[in-house]
Specification:
The chain has 117 residues and is of the alpha+beta class. The chain contains two helices and seven strands, in the order H-H-E-E-E-E-E-E-E. This is DNA-directed RNA polymerase beta subunit.
Length: 117
């Protein structure tokens, strides 16, 4: 019988391979997020926006707001949250100030439940 060669652990090489696969997966995820294009919603006038804000304030409804500017030619994802206040400059969604002139479209946010998907 021949001698059985003892097992040699790859140690650092094994962990480098693990890190590399995790890193590649993360890069793919980021690329997919950057490739997503938010479709432009119809632009609303001040009166329509005011009605949504009034309803959201009175009925404590969650809002989804699309801003009226693009980044690298793409619209950013909607800002979602509850209306927490307002002043002369704009409205507060949580602690984020959104100026009145920046609002392109506003709608009530409806969350998708996992069992509805």
């Amino acid at each position: 019988m021949g001698m059985i060669k003892p097992y040699e652990d790859r140690k650092k090489l094994k962990w480098i391979g693990f890190f590399l696969s995790e890193h590649t997966t993360d890069i793919d995820r980021v690329d997919k997020e950057l490739a997503y294009v938010c479709p432009p919603k119809p632009e609303m006038d001040e009166e329509e926006i005011g009605k949504f804000l009034q309803d959201a304030l009175m009925k404590h409804k969650k809002l989804a707001i699309q801003l009226n500017y693009t980044q690298l030619g793409k619209f950013m994802p909607d800002i979602t949250g509850f209306l927490s206040g307002h002043n002369d400059l704009g409205i507060y969604i949580g602690s984020t100030l959104i100026e009145y002139g920046e609002i392109r479209n506003i709608d009530f946010y409806s969350e998708k439940k996992w069992f509805d998907v």
